[in-house]
Amino acid sequence: MTDRIIEFLRNRREDGPCLVLDLEVVRDNYMAFAKALPDTRVFYAVKANPDPQVLDLLARLGSSFDTASVVEIEQALAAGATPDRISFGNTIKKERDIARAYALGVRLFAVDCEAEVEKIARAAPGSKVFCRILCAGDGAEWPLSRKFGCVPEMAARVLEHAHRLGLVAYGLSFHVGSQQRNPKSWDAALKASAAIFRDLAERGINLQMVNLGGGFPTKYLRDVPAVKAYGQAIFRALRKHFGNRIPETIIEPGRGMVGNAGVIEAEVVLISKKSDEDKMRWVYLDIGKFNGLAETMDEMIRYPIRTAYDDDAMEPCVIAGPSCDSVDVLYEKEPYPLPLSLEIGAKVLIEGTGAYTTTYSAVGFNGFPPLKSYVI
């Protein structure tokens, strides 16, 4: 929460939930990444928050961009990024989208299987490819599934196939899980990466780059290590596994870049109980899973919620969204403490919501509009 956000909300007169994001915090976060990993290129994960003002600021600061679609590529270009600062980082791409990205000048593509390599060889000849490998996401609050990546033993074959088809076998990537609170989590993946580098070198293929992925956290209810701690741990792991021949490195911060820059203002729509004997209050907000708070799924991300009554007595309650869908319950397995004096119509501030809120906001479900967003 910044004074600029507080002042903006004090003067706001519109109805409905909204996100307010402070660009000064985004700037500070970018500079922290650049300082913590000075020899590593920053590729901001556009999917975290593609607001044009965010992209414009980061482009001016020198950031590159990790994109997942042609639309995101076009957004990065519109913000002033040149094609050499854009990675098509999605491992699942239509061949015509690869061709469109190639026509726009993009030459860096992610893969995780031979079939994807073959699409790129046809649609984007001569491009650089990096292969994503699976790795454990232990310690992450939003662990990633096996949807993306291949086992390390397969990666060498995928990249060798790319080399034979005339592509540049450029490097490797991995992701240690979003909201990763353990700075040492990169060690095992870098160990596996170094082994693949050696294997391919013996076959006459010299990889150049390791994409360290995202995973850098933002602060929610629990403290997280500073970016500096991640930089130190990653550099130690690089030296440990690569010695003096450290490859080029890039990172893809999304949540860590914009998460703590945003606050959502919402309103209490209803407070009720399910029976006269029930001690548990249900607090319904005018925002839920379908209009911005999708990451409360399985209660993995627990946002800090502030109210004007926080000095009063607290009791646990269930927090739910406004839609007519029974899964639109934010916190029930582990009830959330809110003030007993909280009233219908009261405003609540949901902190740490700068990432993955506007992008997860559905269009028109139950007639509720997408989440409004203001960048200051």
TrEMBL record:
SUPFAM superfamilies: Alanine racemase C-terminal domain-like (SSF50621), PLP-binding barrel (SSF51419). It is an enzyme of class 4 (lyase). GO terms for cellular component: cytoplasm. It comes from the Bacteria. It catalyses: L-ornithine + H(+) = putrescine + CO2. InterPro entries: Ala_racemase/Decarboxylase_C, De-COase2_CS, De-COase2_N, De-COase2_pyr-phos_BS, Orn/DAP/Arg_de-COase, Orn_de-COase, PLP-binding_barrel. The keyword Ligase does not apply. PROSITE patterns: ODR_DC_2_1, ODR_DC_2_2. GO terms for biological process: putrescine biosynthetic process from arginine, via ornithine. One of its GO terms (molecular function) is ornithine decarboxylase activity. CDD domains: PLPDE_III_ODC. The active site is at C324. Residues 26-258 form the Orn/DAP/Arg decarboxylase 2 N-terminal domain. Pathway: Amine and polyamine biosynthesis; putrescine biosynthesis via L-ornithine pathway; putrescine from L-ornithine: step 1/1. Keywords: Lyase, Pyridoxal phosphate. The modification N6-(pyridoxal phosphate)lysine is found at K47. Its cofactor is pyridoxal 5'-phosphate. Its EC number is 4.1.1.17. The keyword Nucleotide-binding does not apply. Belongs to the Orn/Lys/Arg decarboxylase class-II family. This is ornithine decarboxylase. It comes from Methylovirgula ligni.
